[in-house]
Amino acid sequence: MPNLDAEITRQLVQHFRVEAAAYQRQWTLSLGIGCGGAAIALISLAANLPDPNFAFRLFAPSLWIFLVGIASAAASLPVAALRSTNIGVHFSEAFNREQFQSATRAMPEFITAPKSLGEEMNAPRNKLIEKGNRAHDRAEKAWRMRDLWGVILTGLLGIAAAAFLVGVALPLAHISNGGLLAPSEKAHAAPVEAKQ
Prior knowledge:
Elements: H1 2-47, H2 52-106, H3 115-121, H4 123-176, H5 185-188
């Protein structure tokens, strides 16, 4: 019965890990496509306004922000791959460590009066212990790298999300505060020359 419970739990954990990875990919793609689509929409809007140069200058900060969002979303994909690679390395090396430790436990440790004789007899066991320790070090290093890549991934996705929100908010704030998308008629009027 405990083996059945362990297998069901393992399958549930695997299912939710796959589901979480799918959601993260969708989120990453949504951020990249959202920033790219918003930039295209602003460019299209600016090109169709009466004074495109004015509109492009007005939308330039948002366009740069969207570019940062696209770059961050794109950079998060290889970072996510590196994070997953390090998770795989960790579990692989942890398995190797357990194999070396099991083999070590199966071998008797020889304790002899002349210590050199015991060292010779324990040489194969000591090699297994050394291999197990190296596997442990590699497993721990991979886990630390996984943590580092996870922080970088979270930061990149946070930057992409913030870029999308700020890039959309800037033009909306401009319009909401009475800003114009084209220069006012007063700006086009001929300047009055002072009489001499």
